[in-house]
Amino acid sequence: MKKLIYTAIASTLMTVMITSCGWHLRGSGQAVNNISSVHISGPAKKSDFYRTLSRSLKASKVIIADSHTEAKYRIVATKLRSERRTATVSSSARVSEYQLTELVDVTIFAADGRQLMPRTTMRTERFFDFDENDVQSKNDEAELLKKEMINDLVQQVIRRLNAVSTLSSSTSIRK
Description:
By secondary structure, this protein is α/β, with parallel strands linked by helices. The protein has helices spanning about 1-20, 50-60, 135-175, and strands at about 35-40, 65, 75-90, 95-110, 115-130. β3 and β4 (about 95-110) form a beta hairpin. The longest helix has about 40 residues, at about 135-175. About 20% of the residues are buried.
């Protein structure tokens, strides 16, 4: 009984210490800082990437503007692509592991047209085991990994947007 009480007290103290020092998981909490509106453009506009990015920004109360003239920032996403290649083969020369890669080129502009971030390729990779006797479930697993990878790309874009907005607001304050 005493051991249970000591464990509960230790857990409570650890939780209080972690939350009171300001520590939090990366990506938790508010996704964007001081960004009121964003316009997203580019050929990737009808993709899962665009929908996920829009949804994440809207969840952070950012307005997705229809025109870049109405937005504080403009994100141009181009060359959204997926790659799948053989990572390893078995001793019988059959594929045993694949490497999945999701890439998107992103450029961020300010409302006045200044380029805040040059075209940058965001990239994420995952490996997964392949079993030729269970192709359907492995294809389902690959689709699930692809969705996770798109979420990862979106978080990369949001982190970059936060960085350039912080940088541009601090440079405008100094001027």
